[in-house]
Amino acid sequence: MIFSFQITDAVVVAWILNATLVVPELDHHSFWKDDSEFSDIFDTDWFISYLSKDVTVVKRIPYEVMISMDKLPWTMRTPRKSMPEFYIDEVLPILMRRRALQLTKFDYRLANDLDEELQKLRCRVNFHALRFKKPIQTLGKKLVRRLRVMSSRYVAIHLRFEPDMLAFSGCYYGGGEKERKELAEIRKRWDTLPQDLSAEDERTRGKCPLTPHEIGLMLRAVGFGNETYLYVASGEIYGGEETLRPLRELFPNFYTKEMLAGDDLKPFLPFSSRLAAIDFIVCDESDVFVTNNNGNMAKVLAGRRRYMGHKRTIRPNTRKLNVLFQTWNQTGWDTFSRKVKKIQRGLMGEPDDPRHGRDDFHEMPSSCICQRVPVNRSATMQTRNLLSQVR
Q: The domain that contains 318 carries what CATH number?
């Protein structure tokens, strides 16, 4: 799925360069093999209109620019977490010389710590300009209504236990040689990890998602009863129904988009990004959202739920919980529950849980909400002086 932070930062970079932004092209070569375009997922006209006072956005490179270029647009990849100064010093001269420039692999290519005006622009893009297409919104809201008919409250879990997630993170869950070969094949195919990675070490370091069973045990331990309604956002689960069964047994009121949508989901089935967008809507509307991997979608959802009005987001302490789960059935339930509650302190989505200055911007949009944090004035003035030279 194309995540909004990449598009958000592309808009901010266009502002920094005083450049016209062409509606972003989505990656069609990822593991998910989704050929959706920006306009298949987001409302393009709304995106262009909403940002018109900030950045000029066009649907394609103007014809007169195309014919003036000797070749296709020049491509380059910028370093991760680059500051505005880099774009002014290194990217702007190329753009002015070439007239059109394509920045590739635009994930985390802009620094998180920017001055307040640029952070506010990020907010306008991320939480207002990006709006899902009408069919996606309609189905997502329909699923929310169907859940609300059954229960006034529900918990959404971004389970993130798909084969690609386990392979990319280098995780191992005790499935023997069969699991090792299957996940190694995915890693080899996409050349994502060194082949000597220790999968066991990754779990002990807290770099792996919990299993569906472990997520269920954590929720029961912190106080969610078996009458709780769960919405599970996920693609193909590694291990299939066998892996999901323990979670279903802990929470019989278990639902997915496939279960709730029925035939309404058929037009979306070939497109993983659109399916993820439907999950995004249902998770966003939930009373409690549980992340199982602090990845891109989870960060954007957590930030949105704070920005739009506080709603609880629970983040498992995977490092400590993985250690506890190795011996959890050797102690009584009361002892286990007490330990889980202690481990999860500060991660249960209370209003004062977020750590200003440590969490990712998209997870904690601090300069966009009422509680203000100090701004690095010297850095702000330096950036402003640089920007004034090119605007």
A: 3.40.50
Structural domain count of the chain:
2
| pLDDT tens, residue order, the chain (391 aa) | 455 788 999 999 999 999 999 999 887 566 556 889 999 999 999 999 999 999 999 999 988 888 887 677 889 999 999 999 999 999 999 999 999 999 998 888 999 889 989 999 999 999 999 999 999 999 999 999 999 999 999 999 999 898 888 887 778 888 888 888 888 888 776 554 444 445 566 777 777 889 999 999 999 999 999 999 999 999 889 889 999 999 999 999 999 999 999 999 999 999 999 999 999 999 999 999 999 977 788 889 998 998 888 899 999 999 999 989 988 989 899 999 999 999 999 999 988 776 554 556 777 776 665 444 444 434 444 444 544 444 4
Domain match, 98 and 236 both: no
Check: pTM over 0.85? Answer yes or no.
Answer: yes
DSSP 23-82: -PPPPSSSTT-----HHHHB-HHHHHHHTTTT--EESS--HHHHHH-SSSPEEE-PPTTB
φ and ψ at residue 230, rounded to 5 degrees: -110, 135
Same domain, 143 and 267: yes
Structural domain includes residue 384 = no
